[in-house]
Amino acid sequence: MLSEKMLERLNEQINNEVYSAYLYMSMSAHSTHIGLKGFANWFMVQYQEEMVHAMKIYDYINDQGGQVLLAAIKEPLTEFESPLDMFEKTLTHERFITGCINDLVDLAVEEKDHATNIFLQWFVTEQIEEEGNDNDIIARLKIVEGDGNGLLMLDKELSTRVFTPPVSSGA
Length: 171
Ligand code: OFO
Description:
- Helix 1 (4-33) packs antiparallel against helix 2 (37-63) and helix 3 runs antiparallel to helix 4 (114-144).
- The model has no long low-confidence stretch (mean pLDDT 96).
- This protein has helices spanning 4-33, 37-63, 83-110, 114-144, 148-158.
- The two termini are 19 Å apart.
- It has 171 residues and is mainly alpha-helical.
- The protein is elongated and about 55 Å long.
- Hydroxy diiron-OXO moiety (OFO) binds next to helix 1, helix 2 and helix 3.
- Residues 17, 20, 50, 53, 94, 97, 130 line the site of hydroxy diiron-OXO moiety (OFO).
């Protein structure tokens, strides 16, 4: 059973996750437009992962007998100066999401809502991986800096990222 406040915050987090998906879809479209299909692939996989995050919370609210209430998704960014700019904006956004997850955990602890606290731990771990991936790509983009060949090599590498659908627990 979720408190009203927790239900409201979890519904807000569904919105944040769908916005994340929308933002990365926008970055994917931009990457395609500038001829970087590998980057486009990477961001489209990220879009799919974000929808998984949203659906995890959606399912959790339903499992807890709460009501999912969807709200408008704000318009994503559409203009980016460079691939580095896109990944810096990605990292900034992921740090914001990490803050949201931490606030949710704080609330769960405050409310002694152990079930939600355990549920949220998956997201805590996921954010470490997400920020790590972004930091790694940013570091490499800084090495490449304006070198077309280097950028195309990185593009090739990002083209290999594959979306792995979550495994159902069967429960
Ligand atoms: Fe990017 O982790 Fe969800 O939002």
